[in-house]
Amino acid sequence: MSVAESISAAMDAIATKKERLQKVYSELESHTSALVNFKIQWKELQDHFDNLEELMKKRSEELGIKVKETKATKPKAVVPGSSPASAKKTTEKTAEKAAEKKTDKEVKPRQEFRTLCEKMDAEGLLKFLVDNKKDVAALRSEAPGALKAALKPAELVLKVLEGFHAEGKKSEKEFSLFMQRRRAGVLLLETLPAVVKAEDVPFEVKKLAKKMAVEWKANTKTGEGSYLEAHAFLQLLISYGIVSEYRGDHILEDFVVAIARRKQAPELCRNLGLADKMPDIVEKLISSGKQIEAVNFVHTFGLVEKFPPVPLLKTHLKDAKKVSQETAKNGKNSISAQNEGASKEIAAVKAVIKCIQEYKLESQMSTENLEKRVAQLEKSKTDRKRSADAVQSQTKRPRLNNSGGGAASTAERTPSAYASSFAADRSFLQNPYNLPIQGAYDRSSQGILGSAYGIGSRGESLLSRSHLFPSDNLHSSLYGAPSSYGSFSLGTGLPSANSSYPSAYLR
């Protein structure tokens, strides 16, 4: 009898042995009056044996897979009459396939990571992930192997996610730790489907996941800055196979718009069954000023004919110019406000350049003028800073006498210094992009901005205001910043202000 058959026979006998043990236990329990210290319950023993049985099944399956792989790698015997060259070729192909399988296997997790999962220690696991946040790339690759060591991976991940929406005021340090723990939870949530298929999640665990989803939905917002919460909610539905509970709910589309800047957003849409809703989602992205994200979705889902990318990118540029001007105006045209506005426009223009290059749109929209515009804006920032430094140094010069002449001369020099700064700013009003006129997707004031960008004319329709830049960030959507939440991050979004994670975390 082979080892595998022996294991199988032993496992088949488990039920009979458990029955006998229960009878003996019942007989023993009838004497409990004489056994004051008899405190063990049958359910405890039952759970213990169930865990052992589940562990044995898992080890048996792993052993069976290894046996099959070993057989597959054995070279086939040379058939009489066949050439040695063909036999060698067959052997090489088999070896290549075996090497590919070996490469595809998950990375062996470090012992502490695996042990915490084996013990189902949710709190210890969270602490381990947070403590090792700088090694996020390795953690992501080790996570599948570590979770497989847990007896109940789906249940363990749910325990890790408890307190994801914990309320109450937090100090800056407490909030930073809170966000790190959140990202660690999302990492495991993203990893779970590679360990347990959604349809294989136990009924009781799935029931708990549904309850958690209801609570999360009530606490999750759809505006700017809520992308981590929105992503966690959508991933919870996918990982635990409860998407059907929210089929037809428009909240899914709103959450997708909230996380659209993340590179894996289109894949999440597929897993949520929202492919047929893509035209509506793209419209929402456009109307909310997320043209770069819209272009990404358009190319991913083959909607280029319905939503031509170039008009969207041109609208993005015009909206960026408007935001830049508004930023300077709101700051009373101070040098810092003008530089802030220029930085926002630079980020937007660079995002458009990368988008053109990624989707091979150079034949429809040249990047040359855009690169010149970036250089022009960078130069204007430098000139303004130099002028401000010159004024400051003149102000700090000591007086030559007590007549006050030094102060007067400074006052006389100040206007000319600022005048040179404002003269540099007038370059903003020139035509920086030399782009052709277009009317599709126009949603901002072309009458005001058309001459600056060479796009549109005073007679064309107004463009609706786009909210290109979150208040806490100057980067532009997918391209101006890291495409993740920071460290935990699920490959691949913009990091929070308190995040200390590297951008590799969430891909």
Automatic annotation (TrEMBL):
Task: Using the UniProt annotation, give all residue ranges assigned to the region (Disordered).
Answer: 72-108, 376-413
Query: Has keyword tRNA processing?
Result: no
Q: Does the keyword Cell membrane apply?
A: no
Q: Which family does it belong to?
A: Belongs to the Frigida family.
Q: What is the lineage of its organism?
A: Eukaryota, Viridiplantae, Streptophyta, Embryophyta, Tracheophyta
Query: Which GO biological-process labels does this protein carry?
Result: cell differentiation
Q: Which InterPro entries match?
A: Frigida (IPR012474)
Superkingdom to which the source organism belongs? Eukaryota
Species assigned in the record: Taxus chinensis
Q: Supply the alphabetized keyword list.
A: Developmental protein, Differentiation, Flowering
For this entry, the protein name equals: FRIGIDA-like protein
Q: Name one Pfam family in it.
A: Frigida
Which stretches are transmembrane? Answer: none
Feature: compositional bias, Basic and acidic residues? 89-108, 376-388
